[in-house]
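Before drawing any conclusions, I looked closely at one protein's amino acid sequence and its backbone structure tokens, quoted below without any editing.
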Amino acid sequence: MKVPNKLLSFLRKEKEFLIATHVNPEPDALGSAIAFSIALEKLGKKVILYDKDPVPEFYRFLPGHEQFISSLRASDINYLPIILLDCNTLERAGIEDISFRRSAVIDHHETEKDFGDIKWIESTAPATGLMIFYLIKKLGLKITKEMAINLYSAIAIDTGTFRYNNTTAEVLRVGAELIEAGANPSYISSNLYEAWSKGRFLLFIMALNTLEIKEDIAMIVVTKKMYQKTGTGADDTENFPGFPRMMKDIKVSAFFRELGDNYWKVSLRSRGDINVAHVATLFNGGGHKNASGYKIKASLKSAKKALIKAIKNQKF
């Protein structure tokens, strides 16, 4: 994986950075950002690490998570250089009305946007964490234990803990190197998949009880009332979208999460060559080939109908 020289020059020249990643962060976003900030600080740089949403409680095992701030004052960061990680628009990072002197994007999503003076986008990369691994090495730095835990978590979550079809020999080699640097696979997997609260588990049961299957498309739903009944929130729905895809005859799973009155966040997961990123772009969303999403203002019935029609109109 080739790191652009323009990006390396930018990182070496500037003295301080704002690193931001997408709202509703997961371990690829969080781990990549934390490991990268540690690396830049070792080079003597000043780093502000930002995510509009607080780090979910079940991801606070990541060393360095406390560095994130969730509010920005324009007076403090106006005209700073910004680096967007694991996303490619300010909107996706929840940033508005702030000017930046220079901007860089490091991302692996298939749906590329216009933002960024410098862009390093590898749509075939399994995870942004893999890109940051190579970037840190290219900067001449040693991978520390803290970096290793964060980067292993980033790569693990986006490869389904090395189960998805984006798991390559390269990914496994990097994973082994991160283990040698101090990442503990058992500890990380336990925190990623076996640390649910009772409320989260009850929410999951409620979501599964909404299961609706139309031919080879499975759909589940979480509403605000479900959050109230279980004492949970949007963070607790992490990983929900992929579960219906476990059924062998399901080609696409869709998770509808209520944002407001007739307003839904739709997360899509697919098998093999079915590119749901193309489907998401029809609704001004985006993402990866087998994992993407969008928002839609419509009744739940209409939102489901629109999705089914969009999927059926695609030539997979």
